Amino acid sequence: MGMPNTAPGWTREMVLALPDDGNRYELFEGELLVTPAPAGPHQVAISFLWQALQPYVSGQGLGVVLTAPADLSLGGDQLSQPDLFVMPSLPPSRDWADFPDPILAIEILSPSTARFDRLVKRRRFQRTGIPEYWIVDLDARVIERWRPVDERPEILDERLTWHAEGAASPLELDLPGYFREVWGTA
């Protein structure tokens, strides 16, 4: 279960010094989130989204699709590990501290992280100016799309169209088909 640790004084350096114990550590606005390994459907959802995004991102010359674990700073003392994200470029050093902000961040919702994904992370992604943030709700079979100025998400259950800046054409995702693949249903 994702558990926030609200002990004051958490910094990026402190989180990076934590032991590699199989948990995922993220830091937002001084609040530490500790999350255990995700469940099978969560990982399947990431895999199928990666398979849909990678050819589009590569073919349109948008950058590279990456997955957690990661240690993105989001322009500050944050430590973010989106489940899936698109980087516009890779720094020569490949050091997380030198990575630019993603152009797309995606979280697969789970009961233990819902509050953090929908509130804390979403607000930080919006303030940072990440063009799109998708929250994939596997149970509801919808994707919530957030953009920097949105006060409410766009709820998508049929088709997701992403036309990234600089792309010649949009990516079209058939959401009922995607969720059928994730859940292994006909």
Provide structural commentary.
- The protein is of the alpha+beta class and 186 residues long.
- Helix 2 crosses helix 4.
- The protein has one domain (39-183): tt1808, chain A (Alpha-Beta Complex).
- It is globular.
- The protein starts with a strand and ends with a helix.
- It is built from four helices and eleven strands; from the N terminus they run E-H-E-E-H-E-E-E-H-E-E-E-E-E-H.
- The mean pLDDT is 87.
Average of per-residue pLDDT values: 87
What is the makeup of the main sheet? 6 strands, mixed
Strand content: 25-35%
| C-alpha Rg (nearest Å) | 16 Å
Multimeric state of these chains? single chain
Overall, the morphology is globular
**Could you state the CATH homologous superfamily?**
tt1808, chain A
Weakly predicted, low-confidence segments: none
Give me the side-by-side strand order of the main sheet: 4-5-6-7-8-9
H/E topology pattern: EHEEHEEEHEEEEEH
Terminal residue distance: 30 Å
Class from helix and strand fractions: alpha+beta
CATH topology: tt1808, chain A
What is the CATH-assigned architecture?
A: Alpha-Beta Complex
Helix content percent band: 25-40%
Write a compact overview of the structure shown:
This protein has 186 residues and is of the alpha+beta class. The protein has helices spanning 12-16, 40-59, 114-128, 175-183; strands at 3-5, 24-28, 31-35, 64-67, 84-87, 104-108, 132-137, 142-146, 154-156, 159-162, 171-174.
